């Protein structure tokens, strides 16, 4: 089949001879991919000189699948079911789905040929948080061959059906919006509460949508780049340029009705200033959620900035199937506007052009782009 194959840093190749994945287990589902979004994680795998980050390093195997490079990337995808294993009951050929892409302990049983089977469930998987699995991997990052290809085979448990009202391109956004949805859940966010989103890149914009899906009150997006502020504004957030004043934190705090800080703040940038702001600009008992992916280095932090007003700082790690289901429901019910979600799609390219017009476009023209979707079929 046609696919993009990841061999290592700066080495993704288009191929028309990728082995087509086959149904091997009773719970396998084979999907014909419609659209697959390029994520910041994919870009990191492509560019990071110390990589791979999530993919198995050269000469090592994925802890869940036992697979080695090269493999197809792509974990943000929608498609149509074309074949199912003998035990599959929740989806059938013809159903359109979004795919929850985590791979965790319970997926290991699908790879009897390639990985040891006697490891049991890790503590996180036992406690119902497979997104925090000790062996966490992803379909499209080593856990299974991913969505930059014509076909994917993955477990039934990861399939979330798309209703007729959600088209395939929006279906490919369910994954990034679920990342944000999980973060909003981590903030124990209540209807009417106020939220600060730090950064107007793809994760920040998805967080604005997820907050709207949670009936947020005021949403402010703090972002220094003008084009990104415009995107945030179009999605319905109030915007703020933190580079224009000396004490941005104080100005931000005063932007909520009580002038005392936000109920929740989401760091979608991952720089020391935004981490500090996420704590300082929340009010009493405020919750600061780190959604960004950081490099492996420490930063300065004032513990008393939490203590004085008993604030919380936590992280949010990808998503669960429940997040996917709730995002699909929010899109279906109109809590998240399809038109606003579609504004995140700044390009659609054919699989063959995925590296040149997708990956490289996102790296070289970062500010002008949010999501570029890759499709193995005709681009409409
Ligand atoms: Zn992603
Ligand atoms: Zn686990």
Automatic annotation (TrEMBL):
Keyword hit for Transferase: no
Class of enzymatic activity (EC top level): oxidoreductase
Cofactor dependency: Zn(2+)
GO biological process: butanediol biosynthetic process
Top-level taxon of the source organism: Eukaryota
Pfam families: ADH_N, ADH_zinc_N
GO cellular component terms given for this protein: cytoplasm
Parts of the chain that traverse the membrane: none
Gene Ontology MF terms in the entry: (R,R)-butanediol dehydrogenase activity; diacetyl reductase ((R)-acetoin forming) (NAD+) activity; zinc ion binding
Similarity comment: family membership: Belongs to the zinc-containing alcohol dehydrogenase family.
PANTHER family: (R,R)-BUTANEDIOL DEHYDROGENASE-RELATED (PTHR43161:SF23), SORBITOL DEHYDROGENASE (PTHR43161)
UniProt-recorded name of the protein: Diacetyl reductase [(R)-acetoin forming]
């Amino acid at each position: 089949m046609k696919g993009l194959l990841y061999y290592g840093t700066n080495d993704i190749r288009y191929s028309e001879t990728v082995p087509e994945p086959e149904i091997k287990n009773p719970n396998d589902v084979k999907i014909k991919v419609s659209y697959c979004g390029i994520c910041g994680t994919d870009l990191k795998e492509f560019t990071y000189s110390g990589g791979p980050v999530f993919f198995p390093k050269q000469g090592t195997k994925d802890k869940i699948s036992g697979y080695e490079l090269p493999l197809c990337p792509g974990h943000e995808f929608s498609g149509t079911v074309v074949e199912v294993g003998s035990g599959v009951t929740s989806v059938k050929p013809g159903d359109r789905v979004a795919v929850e892409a985590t791979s965790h302990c319970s997926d290991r049983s699908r790879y009897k040929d390639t990985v040891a089977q006697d490891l049991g469930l890790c503590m996180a998987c036992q406690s119902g948080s497979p997104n925090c699995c000790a062996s966490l991997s992803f379909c499209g990052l080593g856990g299974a061959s991913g969505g930059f290809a014509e076909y994917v085979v993955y477990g039934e448990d990861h399939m979330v059906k798309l209703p007729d009202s959600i088209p395939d391109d929006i279906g490919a956004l369910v994954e990034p919006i679920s990342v944000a949805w999980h973060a909003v859940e981590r903030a124990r966010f209540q209807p009417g509460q106020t939220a600060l989103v730090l950064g107007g890149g793809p994760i920040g914009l998805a967080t604005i949508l997820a907050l709207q899906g949670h009936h947020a009150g005021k949403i402010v997006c703090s972002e220094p780049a003008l084009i990104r502020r415009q995107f945030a504004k179009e999605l319905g957030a109030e915007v703020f340029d933190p580079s224009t004043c000396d004490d941005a934190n104080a100005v931000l705090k005063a932007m909520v009705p009580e002038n005392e800080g936000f109920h929740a703040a989401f760091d979608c940038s991952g720089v020391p200033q935004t981490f500090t702001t996420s704590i300082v600009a929340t009010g009493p008992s405020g919750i600061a959620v780190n959604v960004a992916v950081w490099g492996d280095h420490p930063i300065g932090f004032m513990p008393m900035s939490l203590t004085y007003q008993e604030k919380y700082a936590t992280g949010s790690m990808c998503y669960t199937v429940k997040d996917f289901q709730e995002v699909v429901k929010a899109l279906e019910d109109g809590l998240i506007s399809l038109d606003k979600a579609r504004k995140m799609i700044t390009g659609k390219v054919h699989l063959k052009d995925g590296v040149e017009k997708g990956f490289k476009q996102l790296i070289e023209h970062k500010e002008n782009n949010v999501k570029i979707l890759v499709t193995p079929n005709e681009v409409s």
